[in-house]
């Protein structure tokens, strides 16, 4: 079998473990140099592929590649760019082939969420439509946990752990201060369409009285009256109330809470988030002193508190992508299969990219308690395995030592440029 | 020497390591039962002392007391309540003596910041003014790092580590996304009056291009034009700009930035923080897509990423408090003395409570770069030792296992109640 090169790229919002997939992929490819000569990385996702902005990862040392396993964010840059349809944007696909051919690329690995798997699928089809022998494998990734087929999405488990740890810690803080000071704490977490991340915070609630006392899900229309009543009950019973609110919560009419309240001095909306609106509502109606936090990127970048399970799965998916490609598979995505809950066991399966792309999986209603403010035992059973284990990065001088790759460019071979 | 009881209380905003001081104090007292019969804890700081709401820590197992070392927040509850002057509020002091006498309390340990040391000092004076033999020792604590005499304040080092780790991680995230998405990230951190915490984020900036690119200090009047120019430079040079803003930053006229922008639907101000105002200013003037985070209590509760040096110092100060009291000292506060920077060595000293109370130490101007946007080598030299080492709490089922004490109440002996 002759040697060809592979192209790997990262796409969409990055996570604390997407580089672990890159690590698994590159380390595995390095064990198969008889088939994969070099792994190139596209700088900034598919954009780098289109603009022939490629990185030669063979210049990275084995130890630097190993360090990707514990380095958050996208080591090669990511992008939010979706390939248009083949019919309307044929030039993009022809350009990709031009780049692939110029650099002897026969394997394409695209690491991303639902939109990105659509791109991976479209590339996989080039082999037929444009008669270029490319093998395209998608590698799943998204903190939103909304990909189909896979039991869970790499990146989600670590965000889940971060929010559960954070609300536990902040809850203890508020409990200490509640008698004479802050009684309300609102933590806003990501999840515009689904409440997976908000739900994960519920793992910290192991017994009555534990934070979080209330979780606000995008799946449940916000009912201010019912919410305030519950807040009041919590403060009376526990002395304080710790709330986790998904950024995507909305009113019964569908309008986002985050858009309902804040305007800046110029009258512009959408400045703030959900947390200040919720906190202020409580202050207005119940008079309690509040604090609120908005974790934003901290939650998806927090490699220092990543879930070990998440890291291992991310790595395994990168590894599997290479193995599947070398086994002659095309247009598929390796996935996580849950083999058992107790003890938690998982394995790698595969799903057809055609059916993965653009499907958004919702959180089952039965994971949310009937009152809409917490998670059920079923939800806990699903979520708990995903935050298991710690996988601390190495620290030096008090700070995590994340790797910065050389990212040496591959010399361009094409004389044409391409406008994305 | 006859046996008496001790009273310990926590005061002011809690930290991720104040319980480590409680741990050091109680463990040390348990080694001197010939002198200290029991350690009582006042529930919710001085309020518990005034209302005879005491906790008998002797019901806590040795292992639960040991677990205080890695449990954030205030295990006995804290408060924001300052004792009035002896002249005007004599009844409060007489009440304290009544409670002390009823429970054979001869040692008083007050764990808090500047305001709290004022309380500790006032209690220490009872021995003279009201002829009750009480020994009062202050134990320092504040994330604000603004206590005099002590080289640094327990609690600060861990917040410092949290913000430096967080901006490093979020910075990598933004760097990955910057080409096609977010170019600006603003992390708001605590520090209403001093920029110690904001400054600590600068430790993550080890070489050119590292986040944070800009730090906004309360010590430096905010100059929008100069700031925007720097943001623009960063984006041009590095592709993105990661900013850490202290909540206390203000305009040249002294008005807080946090109050300058946001109003809610009812026209109320002070809803949001500094971060959204700064982020929106950049969007308005430079057009860049932004994200922002407000860590709030997460930063001071984040025991999972505490500084080992901070934990050890907090423990040592609690231990020293007992040793000083048993050595016959009164009206003092054990402090951290920096013996050398390289290698970092510290020891315990002492300072008179009379001079500690109500003094707020500012950050030296020479720790801030001349342009006002970063920290100098001198600042780094001071800050770096304080974030050294990790001291992870034990995890169980994926989450840190923090202890919740029994906090069994001491039976009341007084027939009178007291309104605080």
Break the fold down into its secondary structure elements and pairings:
The structure is a homodimer of 420-residue chains.
Chain A: E1 4-10, H1 18-30, E2 36-42, H2 46-50, E3 54-56, H3 62-67, H4 90-102, E4 105-112, H5 114-124, H6 126-129, E5 135-140, H7 156-177, E6 184-189, H8 196-201, E7 214-216, H9 224-238, E8 241-246, H10 274-286, E9 290-294, H11 297-301, H12 308-326, E10 332-340, E11 345-352, H13 353-356, H14 377-383, E12 395-396, E13 399-400
Parallel strand pairs in A: 1-2, 1-4, 4-5, 6-8, 6-9, 7-8
Antiparallel strand pairs in A: 2-3, 10-11, 12-13
Helix pairs in contact in A: 1-12, 9-10
Question: Could you walk me through the main structural features you see in this protein, from its secondary elements to its overall organization?
Answer:
Two copies of one chain form a homodimer. The radius of gyration of chain A is 23 Å and the shape is elongated. The longest helix of chain A is centred in the middle third of the chain and has 22 residues. In chain A, the strands form four sheets. Chain A has a five-stranded mixed beta sheet with strand order 3-2-1-4-5, sandwiched between helices. About 1% of the residues of chain A have low confidence. In chain A, helix 1 crosses helix 12 and helix 9 packs across helix 10. The first copy, chain A, is built from 14 helices and 13 strands. Chain A is α/β, with parallel strands linked by helices. Chain A has two domains: 205 residues, Rossmann fold, CATH 3.40.50; 146 residues, Phosphofructokinase domain (Rossmann fold), CATH 3.40.50. The interface between A and B is large, with 79 and 79 residues.
């Amino acid at each position: 079998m002759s040697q060809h090169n592979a192209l790997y790229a990262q796409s969409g919002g990055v996570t604390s473990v997407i580089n672990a997939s890159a690590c698994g992929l590159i380390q595995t490819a390095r064990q198969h140099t008889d088939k994969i000569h070099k792994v190139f990385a596209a700088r900034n996702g598919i954009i780098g592929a289109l603009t022939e902005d490629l990185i030669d990862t063979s210049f990275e040392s084995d130890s630097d590649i190993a360090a990707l396993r514990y380095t958050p964010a996208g080591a090669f840059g990511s992008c939010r760019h979706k390939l248009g349809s083949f019919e309307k944007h044929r030039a993009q696909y022809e350009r990709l082939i031009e780049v692939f051919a110029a650099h002897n690329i026969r394997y394409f690995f695209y690491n991303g969420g639902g939109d990105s798997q659509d791109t991976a699928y479209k590339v996989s089809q080039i082999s037929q439509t444009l008669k270029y022998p490319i093998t395209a494998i998608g590698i799943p990734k998204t903190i939103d946990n909304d990909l189909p087929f896979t039991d869970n999405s790499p990146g989600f488990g670590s965000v889940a752990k971060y929010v559960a740890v954070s609300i536990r810690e902040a809850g203890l803080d508020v409990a200490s201060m509640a008698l004479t000071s802050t009684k309300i704490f609102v933590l806003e977490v990501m999840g515009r369409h689904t409440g997976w991340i908000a739900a994960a915070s519920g793992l910290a609630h192991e017994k009555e009285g534990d934070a979080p006392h209330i979780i606000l899900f995008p799946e449940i229309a916000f009912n201010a009256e019912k919410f305030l009543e519950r807040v009041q009950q919590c403060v009376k019973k526990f002395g304080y109330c710790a709330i986790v609110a998904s950024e995507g919560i909305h009113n019964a009419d569908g309008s986002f809470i985050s858009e309902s309240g804040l305007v800046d001095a110029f009258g512009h909306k959408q400045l703030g988030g959900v947390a200040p609106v919720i906190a202020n509502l409580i202050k207005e109606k119940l008079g309690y002193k509040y604090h609120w936090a908005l974790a934003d990127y901290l939650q998806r970048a927090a490699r220092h508190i990543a879930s070990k399970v998440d890291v291992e799965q991310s790595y395994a998916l990168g590894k599997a992508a290479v193995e599947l490609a070398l086994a002659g598979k095309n247009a598929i995505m390796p996935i996580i299969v849950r083999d058992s809950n107790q003890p938690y066991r998982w394995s790698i399966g595969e799903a057809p990219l055609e059916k993965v792309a653009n499907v958004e999986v919702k959180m089952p209603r039965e994971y949310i308690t009937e009152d809409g403010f917490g998670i059920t035992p079923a939800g806990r059973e699903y979520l708990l395995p995903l935050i298991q284990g710690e996988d601390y990065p190495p620290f030096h001088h008090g700070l995590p030592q994340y790797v910065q790759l050389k990212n040496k460019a591959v010399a361009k071979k094409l004389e044409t440029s391409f406008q994305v």
